[in-house]
Amino acid sequence: GNYYKPAFMCTLEAIGVERILLATDYPYEDPIECLEFIKDLPILQEDKEKIYSVNASAMGIGLLAG
Fold it and tell me: Quick one: pLDDT band at residue 1, thresholds 50, 70, 90?
């Protein structure tokens, strides 16, 4: 729930990208700010895709249909 690069990088190193999912606590946090934070991280695009959706899909979590 915070957008602090050093904390994120520590988490990434400690648990690995495969265990990180994208989530926000809307309406308390801005989803656009969350996406911008991930976009600006110094990690591979492949790892960003894992965080955006691949990891959730691997766990059987998908987008809810309308």
Answer: low
Q: Which two tokens stand for residue 46?
A: 């492949």
Is 12 in contact with 20 (CB distance < 8 Å)?
yes
Report d(CA 45, CA 26) in Å as an integer: 25
∠ CA 8-51-6, nearest 5°, is 10
Query: Could you tell me which of 10, 5, 2 has the C-alpha nearest to residue 29?
Result: 2
Q: Which two three-digit tokens encode residue 6? A: 């050093």
Q: Which tokens in the block code for residue 21?
A: 């999912």
Note the pTM of the prediction, 2 decimals: 0.85
